[in-house]
């Protein structure tokens, strides 16, 4: 099978803002039909990276290639921008009708009136805006305005689309409906896309690759499963919701069955780390099971600890439990389980998790 061609390649990019280096990226690529999410804390450089890929940010060094050709002259940048579209958190609609807003990119590209009419009608339909064509864009709700900005971006039928938190501050059902519409069109048309988002579930659901940024650098990239379950360091582990991160030392490794000493207790896991290695044991809260009686000894979970509920806090549909098992462990339980098990602060429980649910990260020497 031939490798898909890269649509965009970025090399040796450095961007300074206010005299400080805010982006330092040796290389980054986006391939044909690929959907990439950029995640990272505030100020990590996600928006600056998008703007750099469109040539809208002054850079100290670096080059961008579009389908293998370096983009250098202003006419080449203009050509690249004509093949791309960008959707921002602020829909930035013109004070005109919904139709005119969706048509604006097509007019800029010199399309004829008849063709514009057909194209706009088709994208208004796709985003359930057909009945609003003549409405003033100033009189739309937040969700409707986002729909118009998406229709406007997709109407130019770009080869690449950039989204910078396009759904922030929308209610969950509206957000869900918009991401589904967007996802469908992207897949139907085979558009390459980069999404900046603070919503990791959105990144997980939509992307083939997740790129984690921090301090202007790419700290990890990979499939959603690789990034979420195998973070490369403590920062990524924390950022992707590995709520339990325990310091330990590998005591034994028999054919990849590892025992790690953590606060005087043993945590079983699997891997290549050898005895003496200083590690972090990272465990996702959804992989910890809580019970009130001693579970069946045949349970497949290799790690089982008696403990006490120290703190209970709400996480929407779940409750987050902090458990003292000799080390602190975080678990999520559904509200239904919480009620059925009659859980409360101070309650004695058993916490268990599988050996394969423990991800080990080697600790760097202090
Ligand atoms: N106009 C500016 N002048 C100077 N520095 C800036 C300017 N805009 C942003 N920065 C800095 O550039 C860095 C990267 O900012 P950027 O907006 O790309 O981050 P981000 O990851 O998109 O953040 P957020 O999640 O908050 O949107 C930050 O340190 C920020 O303070």
UniProtKB/TrEMBL annotation:
The keyword Metal-binding does not apply. Pfam families: ABC_tran (PF00005), TOBE (PF03459). Residues 8-240 form the ABC transporter domain. Residues 298-362 form the Mop domain. SMART domains: AAA (SM00382). It comes from the Bacteria. Keywords: ATP-binding, Molybdenum, Nucleotide-binding, Transport. InterPro entries: AAA+_ATPase (IPR003593), ABC_SmlMolc_Importer (IPR050093), ABC_transporter-like_ATP-bd (IPR003439), ABC_transporter-like_CS (IPR017871), Mop_domain (IPR004606), Transp-assoc_OB_typ1 (IPR005116). GO terms for molecular function: ATP binding. PANTHER family: SPERMIDINE/PUTRESCINE IMPORT ATP-BINDING PROTEIN POTA (PTHR42781), SPERMIDINE_PUTRESCINE IMPORT ATP-BINDING PROTEIN POTA (PTHR42781:SF4). This is ABC transporter ATP-binding protein. It comes from Geomonas diazotrophica. The lineage of its organism: Bacteria, Pseudomonadati, Thermodesulfobacteriota, Desulfuromonadia, Geobacterales.
